[in-house]
Write a structure and sequence with these properties.
With 106 residues, the protein is α+β, with helices and mostly antiparallel strands. The protein has helices at 15-26, 85-92; strands at residues 4-10, 31-35, 40-46, 52-57, 76-81, 97-104. The protein contains two helices and six strands; from the N terminus they run βαββββαβ.
Length: 106
């Protein structure tokens, strides 16, 4: 399986709910973090072999632009890098989240 970057979206704005959903689906723990560059509170998990997941708000910046404007209906974003096929299967099985974009990492 090639190395991938996947972007998933959640239509609700409860980032804590999304963290619980993804944590349960993947069996991992997230670290809560804070960054003005990521819209405030966000969650991060870094696993072995470069695998990483971050859960962030699709926030509006000072100029009124969404952080990921292509997906305005998705208030919460899940960024996944270097996932195994099992991780992708588990995330794709979640009815509450949508796969928004998938790219091969060069």
């Amino acid at each position: 399986m090639p190395d991938r970057f996947n972007l998933y979206g959640f239509r609700g704005d409860d980032i804590d709910e999304v963290e619980r959903l993804i944590s349960d689906a993947l069996g991992v723990e997230f670290t809560p973090r804070e960054s003005s560059f990521k819209g405030g509170k966000y969650f991060s998990h870094r696993g072995s072999d470069r695998f990483e997941v971050t859960i962030e708000t699709n926030f509006t910046d000072d100029e009124g632009i969404l952080s990921v404007p292509e997906f305005p209906l998705h208030s919460t974003l899940i960024f996944v890098s270097y996932a195994t096929s099992e991780v992708e299967r588990r995330l794709n099985a979640q009815g509450e989240i949508d796969l928004l974009r998938s790219e091969v990492i060069q």
